[in-house]
Write a structure and sequence with these properties.
The chain is of the alpha+beta class. The chain is built from five helices and 14 strands. The strands form three sheets. A six-stranded antiparallel sheet has the order 3-2-5-6-7-13.
Length: 271
């Protein structure tokens, strides 16, 4: 039986909840879901690599989404780290006022990026955002443990027709930001997220996270997947339309047509 559109959206929403957690444990191919919805059979697992490569290039040729990251902090550079399943250089440096475009092709699943700041020249050893992950070392100022995973995170899975994305603040946040959708308007939300008020000065004192004596971010704390009431209230007040806690789907789970440009501006951590 062909799955209904509502069933596909439910599956996508479920995957979005998996994606915004600390560990991404599953992969859902939205392109394959779309094929099933139109009565096609699941792809043959024996398809050879050249066929898969051709399919990937065809998807890119039809038009990819773009994540344009802008450094809106006029005082210092930022570096962008990413995971997962994305074959691209790590720790892309963006000077103050600069920007960088990340291509988001159809079939890219479980993607995540986050900002780092006050780093060594190689983009590691950062005082903000050095939280580990693939291609990411730990350690800052002689302390070799990872920082907590409290980054301001953009997360998405990109299908042939639809992209499913969120800004996740479930674990915490580091830098305030703005998100502008170009080519998409989300129903009841519009196309602009202004979270510029989510600076570290606004963080409740009990939620402030220090590393080697320096303030590096705002930690949700509370129980896993759900921060303190003061933290959740802060996020809902200063940064609606984002995940403030696990399963905060009515605020955090969004989708746009593939081909959208996600213009994400990170700001200075302090007001």
């Amino acid at each position: 039986m062909t799955p209904s559109t509502s069933t596909l959206l439910l599956l996508a929403a479920t995957f979005a909840r998996v994606v915004h957690g600390t560990n991404i444990t599953g992969v859902l191919n939205v392109s394959n879901m779309s094929s099933l919805a139109h009565g096609s059979t699941a792809p043959d697992a024996s398809a050879n690599s050249s066929t898969l490569s051709l399919q990937k290039h065809l998807r890119v040729a039809r038009g990819s989404s773009t994540i344009r990251v802008i450094n809106g902090c006029n005082r210092e550079a930022i570096w962008i780290a990413h995971c997962c399943n994305y074959n691209y250089p790590q720790n892309v440096k963006i000077e103050a006022g600069g920007s960088h475009d990340f291509n988001a092709y159809a079939g890219l699943m479980g993607f995540r990026l986050w900002p780092k700041m006050r780093c060594r020249s190689d983009g590691n050893g950062c005082r903000i955002g050095q939280s580990g992950g693939r291609g990411q070392t730990c350690g800052t100022d002689g302390n070799w443990r990872c920082q907590p995973h409290i980054d301001s995170k953009f997360e998405a899975s990109f299908g042939a027709r639809r992209d499913y994305f969120d800004m996740s603040l479930v674990d915490g946040y580091t830098l305030p930001f703005k998100l502008k959708l170009r080519g998409c308007s989300v129903r009841n939300f519009g196309s602009f997220w202004d979270c510029s008020g989510l600076h570290l000065d606004a963080c409740p004192r009990a939620n402030r996270e220090y590393y080697n004596g320096r303030l590096l971010g705002c930690h949700a704390r509370g129980r896993p997947g759900r921060g303190t009431r003061a933290y959740i209230d802060l996020v809902h007040r200063k940064c609606p339309r984002t995940y403030a806690y696990d399963l905060d789907d009515k605020n955090g789970n969004h989708n746009c047509a593939h081909g959208t440009t996600y213009e994400l501006t990170f700001l200075c951590p302090a007001a």
